[in-house]
Amino acid sequence: MFKLMKEICELIPIFLFTETYPKSRMSMDFRILKSKTGKPYSKLPPLHVAILCSKEEEKTLSWSISGEGVSKGMTKKKRVMAITDGKEVERVVVFESVSLQFVDKKGYMLTGYALRGENPPFSINFTRETKLFSSVGVPITPDLEERGRQLLYPPSLKCSLRAAREETAMVSVQGKVKEVSSVGKVQVGRDFVPRKTLTLEQVSSLSSLSIVLCHSKSSSPRNYFLAPTRSGPT
């Protein structure tokens, strides 16, 4: 009897669970972010993604502002990434508490993520359980790369001083500096941040702009929040 069972086992292939990770579970793309069934999942399926580009940002949690000058207090670093599924592009933030190793333009299986938001479209949220597993590449076109760069470095609209008063997005203005105030402070939320007031002249327009140092500092040129306070003819 034993000899017969041994012969049968030799004839019948024995399948072991030795499949690689990408084949062991069905992966999804960013359509899950727009699906109403995405949020209730007890365990979200892996996403097949590629990291288009990334940058490190430093968030200033507190400032020391005195008559002698301004200095940063507590800071916190994070990494901002633009990821793609080969069709769409999403922006995600990775905080210091999440330890990830990755290479731009390389394909990964993304697991352990969460969805942020109450209704579609959801946003991808990285947690301490988030992991990236090496996988086959994701097709990356020049258009996807450009969309990724714009998510990380939003374009700044160039406009006149008068038009800047009505804009809510990032803007670029040009003018002759007529006056610069000393460093003061302004409350943003529950925190106080440094502020300077510039008076700029542009042709026949004169505007005062309050320059508030942003909470985050990235590898891009110095970032300011410009709040026009007054304008009128010279």
Which features characterize this protein?
OB fold (Dihydrolipoamide Acetyltransferase, E2P), 6-stranded antiparallel sheet, disordered C terminus, about 230 residues, mainly beta, 2 domains
Question: Could you walk me through the main structural features you see in this protein, from its secondary elements to its overall organization?
Answer:
- The protein is mainly beta and 234 residues long.
- The strands form five sheets. Strands 1, 4, 5, 6, 9 and 16 form a six-stranded antiparallel beta sheet that branches.
- The protein starts with a helix and ends with a strand.
- Strand 2 (63-66) and strand 3 (69-72) form a beta hairpin.
- The protein has helices spanning 2-11, 21-24, 142-152, 161-164, and strands at residues 47-60, 63-66, 69-72, 75-84, 89-95, 107-111, 114-116, 123-125, 131-134, 157-158, 171-172, 176-180, 184-188, 191-202, 205-213, 216-217, 224-233.
- The protein contains four helices and 17 strands.
- 12% of the residues lie in helices and 43% in strands.
How would you summarize the topology of this molecule?
Blueprint: H1 2-11, H2 21-24, E1 47-60, E2 63-66, E3 69-72, E4 75-84, E5 89-95, E6 107-111, E7 114-116, E8 123-125, E9 131-134, H3 142-152, E10 157-158, H4 161-164, E11 171-172, E12 176-180, E13 184-188, E14 191-202, E15 205-213, E16 216-217, E17 224-233
Parallel strand pairs: 10-11
Antiparallel strand pairs: 1-4, 1-6, 1-16, 2-3, 4-5, 6-9, 7-8, 12-14, 13-14, 14-15, 15-17
